[in-house]
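> Could you send the DUF4267 domain-containing protein prediction when you get a chance?

Sure thing. Input:
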Amino acid sequence: MTVAAYTLAIVLNLFCLFLGYRFLFQPGPAAAGYGAPADPGGDAAAYLTIKGVRDGTFGVVGLVLLAFAGARPEAWFMLCVALIPLADTLIVLRHGGAKAVAFGIHFATAVVVLISAGLLFAV
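Output:
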């Protein structure tokens, strides 16, 4: 179970780094994939950059916690971070995004993050 817990946590944190990179360097496609398309050349540019920095930072913090503090602090971090994809689900729905994206991407991500937290607590 330890290998699965650490592997899932690492994959999720690397995914956050990837999302951060994508919002910083490919903001248009990243926003469309998020479920709320935005014009990176327009008024949304700053918000897309903020999202990129936020997501990337969560990935770095998660990896640092796992490497230097261990499984239990990472589990608490994952438990707290699960609020973000839950909120993203509501954001996509509130702004007219597809239910398939809201639930199939964001809500499913929240569930996987919660599973990761559970596995890390069990280590």
